[in-house]
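// run 5 | inverse folding | seed 20
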């Protein structure tokens, strides 16, 4: 039974021709009112092709910026503009440009978890779902990957290419330890361990499969096993358990809780739709440059 606030949000979204997108880590009540939930790649593709006038992005700043980069004619709303990504803040355009120059202007591959300004000085973007495809599609054997050193090491281990690292990381994925994984495996000995590529290499070595968030949901559905330990942010437990009600899911560690991903409430979504609060824009010169990197990624099938 829907509450008044949820009914009001759905009504307003219809009246204003708005689409509500939610990342897989968002709180359950936000995922429930969304038109579409997904991983970063799915949400950017959806943002690019929707015919809605308004995109309400329930995620963090870089996701709403990416939606605006792809659809500047639309109003893009981030219901709580305080929702950022600590990893995205670990790289800035000036430092990145200097490093690229020092490395002889090799291509820069930038994880979508980055600011529009960083995307603007990059050659191509990637997500956790397509990082190997993107790396292989680049026509040089050497590149610099930002900001996630763990994602870059994962890509390097799966291609023959030389990948220079940037020293960024997701504090929540990076903090998962082999001891945490061993404890989760001891508690759930029949479970497979699925890890996100933002985890450090010593964790990925222990994984039965390495997947993006939506990749984990698909993998669990296709597997003949019925128990899984998830090496990712604990918000994923909700959509994965909903998608596979006959299977069981356990967090690799309760420490993997991203505060920024929990900053949006239903009250924020309602206020945002009612008053168009939290509008996200990017200066046009930065948008055009960043669009080059994002579009190149989307065009890789
Ligand atoms: P994906 O959903 O693309 O796997 O990304 C994880 C993430 O950290 C988003 O902030
Ligand atoms: Fe950023 Fe990590 Fe939070 Fe994703 S889970 S938004 S990468 S801090």
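// decoded
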């Amino acid at each position: 039974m829907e509450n008044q606030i949820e009914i009001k949000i759905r009504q307003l979204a219809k009246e204003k021709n708005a689409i509500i997108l939610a990342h897989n880590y968002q709180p359950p009540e936000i995922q429930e009112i969304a038109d579409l939930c997904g991983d970063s790649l799915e949400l950017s593709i959806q943002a690019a092709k929707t015919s809605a006038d308004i995109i309400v992005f329930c995620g963090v700043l870089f996701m709403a910026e990416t939606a605006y980069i792809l659809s500047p004619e639309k109003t893009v709303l981030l219901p709580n503009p305080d929702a950022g990504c600590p990893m995205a803040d670990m790289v800035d355009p000036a430092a990145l440009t200097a490093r690229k120059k020092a490395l002889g202007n090799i291509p820069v591959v930038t994880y979508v978890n980055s600011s529009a300004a960083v995307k603007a000085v990059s050659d191509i973007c990637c997500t956790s779902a397509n990082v190997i495809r993107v790396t292989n599609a680049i026509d040089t054997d050497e590149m610099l990957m930002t900001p996630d050193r763990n994602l870059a090491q994962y890509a390097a281990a799966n291609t023959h290419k030389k990948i220079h690292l940037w020293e960024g990381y997701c504090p929540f994925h990076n903090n998962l330890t082999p001891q945490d994984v061993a404890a989760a495996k001891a508690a759930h000995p029949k479970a497979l361990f699925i890890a996100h590529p933002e985890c450090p290499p010593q964790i990925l070595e222990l994984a039965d499969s390495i997947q993006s968030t939506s990749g984990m949901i698909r993998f669990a559905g296709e597997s003949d096993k019925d128990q899984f330990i998830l090496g990712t942010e604990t918000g994923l437990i909700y959509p994965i358990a909903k998608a596979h009600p006959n299977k069981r899911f356990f967090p690799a560690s309760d420490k993997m809780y991203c505060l920024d991903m929990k900053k949006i409430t239903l009250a924020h979504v309602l206020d945002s739709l009612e008053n168009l609060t939290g509008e996200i824009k990017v200066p046009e010169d930065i948008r055009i440059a960043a669009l080059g990197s994002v579009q190149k990624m989307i065009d890789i099938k």
